[in-house]
Amino acid sequence: MSVKLVHITAPIAAEASLRKLARESAAVSFEKVADIEGDHAIYLAVAGSDSRQAFVDALHAITQTSPRSRIVISPVETVLPSVEARKKSDTREELMLRIWDGVEVTRTYLVLTLLSTIVALIGLLNDNVAVVIGAMVIAPLLGPNLGLAFGTVLGYGKLIRKSALTGLAGLVPAILLSAAIGALWGSVPQTGELMDRTAVGYDAIILAFASGLAGVLSLVTGLSMTMVGVMVAVALLPPAATFGFMIGAGDYELAVGALELLVINIVCVNLSGLLVFFLNGIGPRETFRKKFAHKML
After folding, report:
1. Over the range 183-222, which residues count as b (16 or more CB within 10 Å of their CB) and which as e?
2. Which site among 26, 62, 184, 219 is 20 to 30 Å from 13 CA-CA?
3. pLDDT digit string (tens) for 25-64?
4. In sequence order, which residues have a C-beta less than 8 Å from that of residue 15 and are 6 or more positions away?
5. pLDDT per residue over 172-213, tens digit each?
6. Are 171 and 259 a contacting pair, CB within 8 Å?
7. 209 vs 132: CA distance, rounded Å
8. What's the CA gap between 46 and 28, in Å, rounded?
């Protein structure tokens, strides 16, 4: 839905400013619901996606003087009469909540990464592209990469560190497991799927860049990211598994090629993500974060 319901708890003294802001931001509706103790009141606003970020930022500036002030954004199923918007997008705060969910290191995250690594190696060693793609369906690598790009564009160091550590927590065990399998295997089978991950090609770079673009576009527009997650996993997990396998099998020249492909793909995925966030006007609110984000970019 292109509109959201904004619940506002703010000082009664700020009511005139809130109503003026609602008019200037072209909010669909703005109503005072009830007075509450402590000279505060509850207000409800229906805001479209075109102006919601600016509306929320201005609300924050008005209400931050009171520690009791709160801004809560809720989904809306429908509005009558219907409301049209030029685009569908979430606010910085809504995106942050969704991204934090994807950068947590959980048991499920680790188990799925290891399982997808095993399945991917089976596909690579048997030259079976269908099995490789099947492994990517369960590989949870989209979240950390989105988090890294989002944290960079916002100048949010905590999210950058958390995303980087989560990504490493997935890739490092995958590489170690692949190395163990490579050592047990003892040789390097000359399968097309495996050899394709030992050299950097323009097709791989384009895939990684397109994956990052699709991932962030899905995030900012609220669309499903399931299939996009498969694309990102295809760009990252097979090179990581190939790198580990080559190390274990003792073929260090091919291992270097796989590592180069992995690093380039990670960079391309995150650069494309940064580009989409930037073009959608997503950036930090605080001045000190703007300076940090400018240095990072």
Report:
1. eeeeebeeeebbbbbbebeeebbebbbbbbbbbbbbbbeb
2. 26
3. 877 889 999 999 889 999 999 988 777 888 888 898 898 8
4. 32, 41, 43
5. 999 999 999 999 998 889 888 899 899 888 888 888 888 888
6. no
7. 20
8. 5
